[in-house]
Design brief:
It holds the Pfam family Pro_dh. The chain is of the alpha/beta class and about 300 residues long. It has 12 helices and 8 strands. The chain has one domain: Alpha-Beta Barrel (TIM Barrel), CATH 3.20.20. Helix 7 links the parallel strand 4 and strand 5. It is globular. It binds dihydroflavine-adenine dinucleotide.
C-alpha cells in the first residue's frame, strides 16, 4: 500500500504542520477533530455522554522544541482537567510526553507530567500517556514507573501489539491500567512485526494476557472482528465488564460505538482538539486510506 508511507511521511512535515495551525480545521479534519478550544472539546464530550459514551480528551500538540512550549502545553493539560471537573462530564485526559518536552529535556518532561498527574489525582481523574514511536517507548515506560510510585491509580499508558517487546511489557506491567492498540507508527522490522495478520494475532494475544492477569484493560480498536473475539473471551473466562472498556476515535464507526455502549459495555471515545491537528489527521489517513474521502469532501466544501 503506497498511501500509508506517504501519509506517515506527510505527518512529519514541520512546514505543513506549522501552516495548518493557521488554516483552522481544514481538509475534512472537522469530522475527526472536535474543535480548537477547550470549550469545543467539552461540548463534544457532553454530546457523547448523552449517547451513553464516555471520553478521553487530547489537546493536540506536535514538534514541541522549547521549554516554553512544553510548559504552555502542561498548563493547557491542567486547564483541561479543571474544565472536565467544572463541567461534570465523564471524561479523562490523554497526552503525549513529547508535548511536555520529552525531546527537550527529560527532567522537565517528568516535572510537567508530575504536575498534571498530581492535579488529576486531586480531582479524582486519570491520565493516559499515549505511546509514540519506538524511539520514545522505553523513556515513556520509565517515566510511567516513577509516576506510579507516587500516583498508583491516576496514570497509565499504551502498549502497541506490533512491537516484539509487547508481550514482555504486558508481563512487567501486570496490574497497570493499559490501553492496548495495534500501533500507528512506521517501525523497522528490527523492532516491530510487519505482517498485518501477525499483528492482529499478537494484539488478541496481549489483550487476553492482560485481562487474564486481572488488570484493567482498554481495548482500543475499530476492528469489529477483534471486538467480537474479546467479548466472547470475556464471557467464557467470566471477566467482569468493570475490568475492561472499549475505545474508539472520535468520528469513526459512530454506529458501532453506540451499539457497544447500548449492550452495556464501557465505550470510551478519544476526542482530539486544538489547532495542531495536522499530524494527527495525516496519521489517521495513513491507517485507513478510505479516510481520504473525508479529506476530499472537506476540500470540496471549503
Ligand atoms: P485496522 O485499521 O487494523 O482495521 C481492521 C479492520 O477493522 C478493517 O479491515 C475494517 O474491517 C475495520 N475498520 C477499521 N476502521 C474502520 C472504519 N473507520 N470504518 C469501518 N471499518 C473499519 N496507536 C499508537 O501507536 N499509540 C497510541 O497511543 C494510540 N492510541 C489510540 C487510541 C485509540 C482510542 C484508538 C482507537 C487507537 C489508538 N492508536 C494508537 C491507533 C492504533 O494503534 C491503530 O493504528 C488504529 O486504531 C488502527 O487500527 P484498528 O485496530 O482500529 O483497525
Amino acid at each position: 500500500m503506497v498511501l500509508r508511507p506517504m501519509f506517515l511521511y506527510l505527518s512529519k512535515n514541520k512546514v505543513l504542520n506549522r501552516s495548518a495551525k493557521r488554516w483552522g480545521l481544514r481538509m475534512g479534519a472537522k469530522q475527526i477533530v472536535a474543535g480548537v478550544t477547550i470549550d469545543d472539546a467539552m461540548t463534544a464530550v457532553k454530546k457523547l455522554n448523552e449517547f451513553g459514551l464516555v471520553a478521553t480528551v487530547d489537546h493536540l500538540g506536535e514538534f514541541i522544541t522549547s521549554k516554553e512550549e512544553a510548559i504552555e502545553s502542561t498548563t493547557y493539560c491542567i486547564k483541561t482537567l479543571e474544565a472536565i471537573a467544572d463541567t461534570g462530564v465523564t471524561c479523562n485526559l490523554s497526552l503525549k510526553l513529547t508535548q511536555l518536552g520529552l525531546d527537550v529535556e527529560r527532567e522537565l518532561c517528568y516535572e510537567n507530567m508530575r504536575k498534571i498527574v498530581g492535579r488529576a489525582a486531586e480531582l479524582g481523574n486519570f491520565v493516559r500517556i499515549d505511546m509514540e514511536d519506538f524511539a520514545h517507548c522505553q523513556q515513556t515506560l520509565d517515566i510511567l514507573s516513577t509516576l506510579r510510585r507516587e500516583f498508583p491509580r491516576s496514570v497509565g499508558t499504551v502498549i502497541q501489539a506490533y512491537l516484539y517487546r509487547a508481550k514482555q511489557d504486558i508481563y512487567d506491567l501486570k496490574g497497570v491500567n493499559l490501553r492496548l492498540v495495534k500501533g500507528a507508527y512506521k517501525e523497522s522490522p528490527q523492532v516491530a512485526i510487519q505482517s498485518k495478520k501477525q499483528i492482529d494475532e499478537n494484539y488478541l494475544s496481549i489483550i487476553k494476557q492482560h485481562l487474564k492477569s486481572g488488570s484493567y484493560t482498554a481495548i482500543a480498536t475499530h476492528d469489529h472482528v477483534i471486538i467480537q473475539k474479546v467479548k466472547a473471551f470475556c464471557r467464557v473466562e467470566k471477566i467482569p465488564r468493570s475490568q475492561f472498556e472499549f475505545q474508539m476515535l472520535y468520528g469513526f464507526r459512530k454506529e458501532l460505538q453506540e451499539k457497544i455502549a447500548a449492550e452495556g459495555y464501557t465505550m470510551r471515545i478519544y476526542v482530539p482538539y486544538g489547532t495542531d491537528w495536522y499530524g494527527y489527521f495525516m496519521r489517521r489517513l495513513a491507517e485507513r486510506p478510505q479516510n481520504v474521502s473525508f479529506a476530499l469532501r472537506g476540500l470540496l466544501s471549503k
